[in-house]
Amino acid sequence: MANHGYITGTGAVCPLGRTAPEFARRLFAGETAIRLMTPEERGSLQATHVARCDGFTPQPEIPAMKARRFDRGSQFAIIASAQAIAEAGYPISEAPEEIGIALGTGSAGAGALTEFLRVLLTESPEAAPPFHFPNTVANAPASQVSIELKLLGPNVTITQKDPSALNALIFSSIALGSGRARAMLAGGVDEWNPVYAMGFDRVGALRGEKRTSGIVQGEGGFAVLLETQESVRSRGARPLARLSGLAMAGAPCEPYRFTPDLPAIERAVRGALDDAGVSPGQIDLLLPSRNGVTEMDRAEEEVLHRVFAAAPPAVSVKDAIGEMAAAGGGQIVAACRAVADAEGPLSRGPRPRRVLIDSFGAGGNFLAAVMEAA
Amino acid sequence: MSKDRRVVVTGIGAVTSIGGNVPEFWKSLLEGRCGIGAVTLFDASTYRTQTAAEVREIPDGFLTAKEKRRMSRADRMGLAAATEAVLQSGLDLSREDRTRVGVILGGGTSGLLDSEDFFSRHLHGRPARPSRVLNHMPDAITDRVAQHFRLEGIKSTVTTACSSSANAMGYAHDAIMAGWADVVLTGGSDVLARLTYGGFNSLRSVDPGPCRPFDRERKGLSIGEAAGILVFEERGRARRRGAPILAEFLGYGVTSDAFHMTAPDPSGSAGGRTIRAALASAGVNASDVDYVNAHGTATPQNDSAETAAIKNALGARAREIPVSSIKSMIGHCLCASGAIEAVATVLTLRDQLVPPTIHYENADPACDLDYVPNATRDADVRVAISNSFAFGGNSSVVVFGRDA
Asked: What residue of A is the nearest CA neighbor of B143?
């Protein structure tokens, strides 16, 4: 039985809520934040829907003057991370070199990147605004978090399409296991961007008027604080959940195509269960990868049918907040809240003890995790 | 983490402005050849500067025309380097358990050069083919390498700007140590793009001529492009199969400066912390370090801050050992710089030769170490470190040693 660490805090800024408990409550109540795009958002896209952090402002956590220095993704990441630290009661300043951050992202920096390039390509390279350039890097949000919260430990950003945030969780668990840190903020961040939306729409990735298969884009920031058992014990913290299983499987595939590779999916799902040392029957709740890409959703269903004699109840996070590289962060946060919160996630039955998370992406990337009651 | 597992390098591959394979690249480094010249990949006439270290020819003859059409420039360079590395390792991937072979790379501009064409046409109201943006995501190259070699193991792409591929190697090491894989193709491939070229120019960080690391008159960096791929393998299995062991990856340090988005900590305390974390991870002392392959970008800020960091971490040892920046020859290859500099560091350990810092003429009181000016040197190098620092304060230092 693996022990990848304990979750002691959660944070979320997403289309379905501005804190982790609010997000989980609304998710498990069956709400969705997916809505029709406004005419401005939609432009000439065939895509029709989106899930955004409507009405989001970085206040009160980040004062207005200061907030202008951060792009939207960094604001999401800073607030979600601060929430996780606050809930955990983690004393960063006591040993700042022992706490780090790993975030998954697919779009961080997109706003700065597209704006810098727009000016460069339509006016001149010399007219391109220099202050945008440092924010074009994907690691800007995680780094802004490290600067704001004064984290001196490991700091990485990871991209692996839709499962990016689960990969960040794997990096974090390895960082704890190898003694590089005692605590890691792990999660994901993405900002919706009209140019990226246009690109995704043009390559056929988005569901809409002309396509029944495809994703609805979301945005948001998620973070959990993953701590070693020793850290939790020594400071007398009360963990919300234990990360007990992690697995990743690959399948050879064009980077931008979906491959409904049943053996690879099964390897990821069974790998996470085996890693956690649990049988399929011990899983009480499933947070599937399901995101509207028809052939992938079917493949996942088939594998789950093979693995589970009786499938546990499933809640689709992506039907609620859309799909993005950070969506796995939403699944991780939801799994923690599901096993930790007094009000069970489902209207019937007891609070789940174990949750399985699936997170699959284009290019043959299949990740899964098991989260347990602490 | 299992104590009996160790990670060695059994293959290396390189595509650079001064050589399209490892032997050519190494020969050029030892000769002190400069790969920095005129930009040809796009019209640079309206930019503040017009020079970069471009790869003139990509050795991608093993790909079909159809494959090449689907791939970005970064893909083709990365696959060429990966093919060279795998060939040298002697791995017969058709006989391996391919679920145990992973790919962990640093993500860079990827297909950005093509995306920029698409975006430009779109902005000017001209028809643009969407296939041009298919390779936009930084992890495209990782999937590409896995696809090419039919690998089914773990995959990851670290996107921490200029320390991406150094962190990727660290992740690869830790993943093998923790049992996630037995073999990982790691490193990175990054190519020139308008965004990065225009970006560093907008920050006034680019030297109009070839960059001059650690020189008092240094004016900034030269942007370069390269692919560097290393085969990391669990040492026990590498020895059992009689693989060539080029070096051991002893460990790495990964830290946050938590200082500033673009400026390094001038005191060297942040960078020094990363070096110390790397040495601790590798289980070696400052006095064991025989060579520093420097980040050495040639920006006024980096080189003095890095010098301070080396002194901060290595103490008296800093003045006894060579420190050189191969960016003086191949430019700053951004997200691939950690990888290509790791390839050079492995070759230093193999051949006991330290490549020079070229274009070095004027001593700077703020940069007062031995930078191996202008000529290759023989040296007894058993342990070497390679530094990578990035926007965001994402610092990473890797440690290689001779296999013993």
From this structure: A255
Catalytic (active site) residue B359: no
Q: Which chain B residue has the Cα nearest residue A175?
A: B174
Contacts of A361 in chain B (CB under 8 A): none
Nearest to A111 by CA among A139, A142, A131, A132: A132
The residues, any chain, with a CB within 8 Å of residue B238's CB and separated by 6 or more, are B8, B10, B245
A23 within 8 A of A183, measured Cβ to Cβ: no
* Token code pair at residue A308: 């589970």
pLDDT digits (tens, 9 = 90+) for B46-77: 999 999 999 999 999 999 999 999 999 999 99
State the first-to-last Cα distance of chain B, in angstroms, to the nearest integer. Answer: 21
Find where tokens 């700042």 sit.
A96
CA atoms in the 13 A half-sphere facing the CB of B299:
20
Q: Contact B333/B365 with Cβ under 8 angstroms?
A: no
Residues B361-392 have pLDDT tens digits of 999 999 999 999 999 999 999 999 999 999 99
Q: Do A114 and B119 touch (CB under 8 A)?
A: yes
Check if A75 contacts B (Cβ < 8 Å): no
Spatial contact of A145 and A165, defined as CB atoms under 8 Å apart: no
Mutate to test the interface with B, among A137, A150, A172, A274 (most CBs of B within 10 A): A137
DSSP string across B378-392:
E---SEEEEEE--TT
Cα dihedral A12, A18, A19, A21, rounded to 10, equals -110
Within 8 A of A143 by CB-CB distance, chain B residues are 256, 261, 391-394
Q: What is the DSSP letter of A259?
A: -
Q: How many CA atoms lie within 13 A of B74 on its CB side?
A: 34
Residues 6+ apart with CB under 8 A from A6: A226, A227, A228, A229, A232, A237, A239, A240, A241, A242, A243, A374
Supply the pTM of this predicted model. 0.98
Tell me if A220 sits within 8 A of A120, measured CB to CB: no
Name the helix (H) or strand (E) containing B157: strand B155-158
Residue B270: strand, helix, or coil: helix
| Residue A121 to residue B47, Cβ atoms within 8 A | no
How far is it, in rounded angstroms, from Cα B261 to Cα B162?
13
Closest CA to B340 of B186, B200, B211: B186
User: Which ranges constitute the DSSP H helices of B203-299?
Assistant: 235-240, 269-282
Query: Token match 């069970």: residue?
Result: A344
Beta carbons of A252 and B150 less than 8 angstroms apart: yes
User: Which two three-digit tokens encode residue B112?
Assistant: 């950005």
**Pairwise CA distance, residues A187 & A105, whole Å:** 9
Instruction: Give the Cα separation of A351 and A342 in Å (integer).
Output: 8
| B295 is known as an active-site residue | yes
Between CA B230 and CA B218 the distance in angstroms is: 31
pLDDT in tens, A21-61: 999 999 999 999 999 999 999 999 999 999 999 999 999 99
In a 13 Å sphere around the CA of B267, the CA atoms on its Cβ side amount to 5
- Confidence at residue B4, expressed as pLDDT on a 0 to 100 scale: 85
- Distance between CA atoms of B96 and B102, rounded to whole angstroms? 12
Residues B32, B358 contacting (CB under 8 angstroms):
yes
Nearest to B338 by CA among B4, B51, B6, B107: B107
Q: Omega of the bond prior to A125 within 30 degrees of 0, cis?
A: no
The predicted pLDDT at position A344 comes to 61
Closest by CA to A331, choosing from A285, A286, A287, A284, is A287
In Å, how far are A8, A145, A165, A198, B142 from A158, measured between CA atoms? 22, 15, 8, 23, 12
